[in-house]
Amino acid sequence: MPASAAAGVAAEGEENAAEAGGRELLYCGTTRFDIMGRKVKGGMGGSRGNLVSPTRLRPLMGVDIRFVASGCGTEVSPAPCLVTEATNAVCGADFTVWLSSVEGSSILTAGLPQYGQLGHGSDNEYNTKVSSVKLSYDPQPRPWAVATLSGKTVVKVACGTNHTVAVDSSGFVYTLGHNEQKDEWQPRLVQIFQKNNILGPNDIISAGSASSACTAGGCGQLYMWGKLKNSGDEWMYPKPVTDLSGWNIRCMASGSMHHTVGADDSCISWGHSEYGELGYGPTQKSSVNPKKVDILEGMHVTSVGCGVGMSLIVVDRANVGNKIDQLDTFDGDSDALFQENMKSLYFPPRCYSKEEQDTNTSQQHARHETAAETPEQAAKKATPTANSRSNKRKTTVDQPKPEDGMDGSGEETKEVQRSHGTSTRRGRGRGAKTAATPEAKPSGRGRGRGRPKKGTGSPDPAPLEAGSSGRGGKKSGKRGRPRK
After folding, report:
1. Alpha carbon of 384 to those of 380, 393, 395: distances in Å?
2. Which of 200, 250, 297, 447 is the most exposed, fewest CB within 10 Å of its CB?
3. What string of DSSP letters covers 49-93?
4. Which tens digit of pLDDT belongs to each residue from 230-275?
């Protein structure tokens, strides 16, 4: 059998296995888009009804999901597509990009051209008032082919909020739209993805709110550029993400400031999370570096999508055993979900150390032994302190009352010792004072604390000289010339 035929049979068998197992959609993030960022009863609107870990959706259980995508924008009524032979369609904030199999019109755009994201060389800016400056942008209602790329076949496209990333059949990458320094009104070639670093058929591209990403080089190395986090400098040119080097990345999606990747048998996410869209659970919200979602470890992720405050993950149910049955299921009751999340957040289960576990085990054994003991056994096991106290009481009752002036040991009491003139001093504390009155010390003039008491025998102080005070002999009276 030829190698190509064998590869086709293997691919068909894998597809049949996937169909037999099926694929299921998992969701993490907010479920109350109507109150996101608003203050409501019970906390901030974003804190109510959050699915902080990948959760199964009961209405979609059993439905075979093949692909998922997400974006942001206003709700509008559906309109018929005017593009013939369309192969793919991607949406940004206020514009849409189509890929077509028609030669010379492989990429078409329509919508708002404010930042040049349509690639037609103009932003259609005009002044709405003659007397003042009030700028507006004329939208493009019908799909137009991008003339700059008419001679190329665009095979992949991704859209951010106000920018577009496209890849042609040769593996070259083009960007157009909003830029930090100057908006690109026409497709611009990214110079780093050339020669040996072009994109292959299995490489992926992704666009977030203000960032772009792709794999290149044939080894699956991930490159990113743009505004990747809320703080810090932007990446002005594509840089490799070294934390994901060596991973076989199959799919990637970027939201406002968070990113999700499906690689090997793991799901990896990182960035800023406010509503639990990274899927780490109630203990962690955000992560600067790429981190695996532990609850999805060992599952084959086939497609991912990221939006504002939410993430979508499609996993293959084949060869996962009962792992997917261990995930939570969301029925649509956001209020009950809020109560459960608050309980797990403020009253998490305590993790004991090994020493604490040994202590708790010994205490439990002691309780069981005490409960099994009879009252007679408990009385026999009285503490030594209690036994010594009872013995002291018995000794006190049996001994006769000591005579006056003698204590129980036959020694004189302190009162008798004082009457005999014996000192009972035992240190420098209060008990060190003797009964005898201390001799009065002669006190003279000085800077003491008050006058000496009368009758102590101290000599009278000498009279002060006129015009002098008791401190240092300074002259008293008012300053200035003395009175005559």
Report:
1. 11, 14, 17
2. 447
3. SEEEEEEEEGGGTT---------------------TTEEEEEE-S
4. 887 889 999 999 999 999 999 999 998 999 999 999 999 999 988 8
Are the CB atoms for 128 and 188 separated by under 8 Å? no
- How many other C-beta atoms can be found within 10 angstroms of the C-beta atom of residue 69? 14
Backbone angles phi, psi at 222, to 5 degrees: -90, 130
Angle CA(298)–CA(302)–CA(305) in degrees, nearest 5?
Answer: 110
- Number of residues written out for the chain: 484
**And the tokens for 443?**
């006190």
Name the pTM for this structure.
0.63
Compute the chain's Rg from CA coordinates: 44
Q: Which residues of the chain have pLDDT under 70?
A: 1-21, 35-48, 71-79, 180-181, 333-357, 360, 364-482, 484
- CA 116, CA 130: separation in Å to the nearest integer? 25
DSSP-derived pairing of the beta strands 50-57 and 43-44: unpaired
What residues have CB less than 8 Å from 322, skipping those under 6 apart? Answer: none
CB atoms within 10 A of CB 101: 11
